[in-house]
Amino acid sequence: SGFNFGGFGLTANPAVNFNIGNFGVSTTSTPPFNFGNSLASAGAFGGFGTTTTSAAPAFSFSAPTNTGTGGLFGGTQNKGFGFGTSFGTGTGTGLGSGLGTGLGFGGFGTQQQQQQTTLGTGLFNQPAQTPAQSNQLINTASALSAPTLLGDERDAILAKWNQLQAFWGTGKGYFNNNIAPVEFTQENPFCRFKAVGYSLMPNNKDEDGLVVLVFNRKEADIRSQQQQLVESLHKILGGNQTLTVNVEGVKTMPDDQTEVIIYIVERSPNGTSRRVPATTLYAHFEQANIKSSLQQLGVSLSMARTELSPAQVKQILQNPPAGVDPIIWEQAKVDNPDPDKLIPVPMVGFKELLRRLKVQDQMTKQHQTRLDIISEDISELQKNQTTTMAKIAQYKRKLMALSHRTLQVLIKQEIQRKSGYAIQADEEQLRVQLDTIQCELNAPTQFKGRLNELMSQIRMQNHFGAVRAEERYYIDADLLREIKQHLKQQQEGLSHLISIIKDDLEDIKLIEHGLNESIPIRGGVFS
């Protein structure tokens, strides 16, 4: 018996065989419970992830996920896929007085950092499990399979309760009187409210110098105070006159947040300029004093927008995030619709799912707004096209009229110029050609005759059109039969009504007659 919620797979089974592969600890209890990698085959509803169906749900730690992995998918709550916070300690050149290009960048101080050859402890570092993490995993296994808190059959009920809490990703698992309870979070390997989505990888280079700042303010406020914001950022950077803060773009985000993309341009004394690398600028923003100043401006998050190298992408894909089943991670890589542009990211818990839903709604609204703007532009262009076509037709008519007037002026001028001269040979030849053309036009079977025939046909069509306008409309036979039936019913109803009125009139006359006869009799009685 089992049920599957969405793509997370919450499976309950009355048998447990809990195995920790790396540590060689196998624990079995009387009411065994089996934690399965596979999802339940009954009641499956694949809402968020890939659903794997098997006959016997079984979850084994024989191929454990690395719960000690730090970085982007570590033990902290996942707040989305950010490329900026992952490279801050990776490859930093520092903002010192000399960056190797002759353009001394002294706006952020003179401290330099040696370029690191390792990838640091950020996005891609996968450290080995520590003894504390191993103990944590063993304690979790004990809480889920064989708690010894009460020492009787109630421990089996407590084990099932701990299993439900682990599946849900919240609560505390009590298993021993002498050991602190296990804290269940959504990042634990047993939490079933997990899925894998995809995020677009940035294609900006480090030399572009783009850094994203997320403000806890609305887009309208940011745009209205954009100049003051640029000046404040310039002061935070030390107020160096060789540095210029530029805003690349402003985009609204859910929960009344706004994303601002900036870059810094450094001018050298010899007149050349360059952009400060994104990783260098981000490392400067992550300094404690600078970060506090940014927080005073309302900045909640900063990240460098740089593309991932092939080695970094390979490192991410080869190491599943903490708490994500390697099988699901492999399936997510296979189902990637565009591996060159998209990268799989985990969605842990309903908060992350809600965040992605809000982002999707926000992007849909932005797309709809852009479509509305494009539609308005198209309508305006259509109006302009109609106006332009009307003006072109008007100018054509005007050009034709001016051409005729010009021709008349040329004719009169030529007549005055040739006045008193005899007709020349070429003129005589031209006159003969004109007479020939005139004869052809006047011939009955030629153009004039055809034009007369067309004119007569046009007149006949106009006459027939006027006659047709006076013709009556024809009604369909079935419709006419229905109208007759309706009128017949109306006639019968009127006849019945008339007969009722006649009967009532006769009754009234009879009553009047009876009243007239009774009046003299009453007069004789009272006399």
TrEMBL record:
Pfam family, one: Nup54
Gene Ontology CC: one annotated term: nuclear membrane
Primary location class: nucleus
Compartments (UniProt record): Nucleus membrane; Nucleus, Nuclear pore complex
Domain Nup54 C-terminal interacting residue range list: 473-511
Highest taxon of the lineage: Eukaryota
InterPro entries in the record: Nup54/Nup57/Nup44, Nup54_alpha-helical_dom, Nup54_C
Gene3D superfamilies found in the cross-reference section: 1.20.5.170, Single helix bin (1.20.5.490)
Domain Nucleoporin Nup54 alpha-helical: 320-458
GO molecular function, one term: structural constituent of nuclear pore
Topological category with respect to the lipid bilayer: Peripheral membrane protein
The keyword Repeat belongs to this UniProt entry's keyword annotation: yes
GO process terms (BP): mRNA transport; NLS-bearing protein import into nucleus; nuclear pore organization; protein localization to nuclear inner membrane
Keyword tags: Glycoprotein, Membrane, mRNA transport, Nuclear pore complex, Nucleus, Protein transport, Repeat, Translocation, Transport
Complexes and interactors: Component of the p62 complex, a complex composed of NUP62, NUP54, and the isoform p58 and isoform p45 of NUP58. Interacts with NUTF2.
Functional summary from the UniProt entry: Component of the nuclear pore complex, a complex required for the trafficking across the nuclear membrane.
Protein family membership: Belongs to the NUP54 family.
Name used for this protein in its record: 54 kDa nucleoporin
Originating species: Loxia curvirostra
Record gene name: Nup54
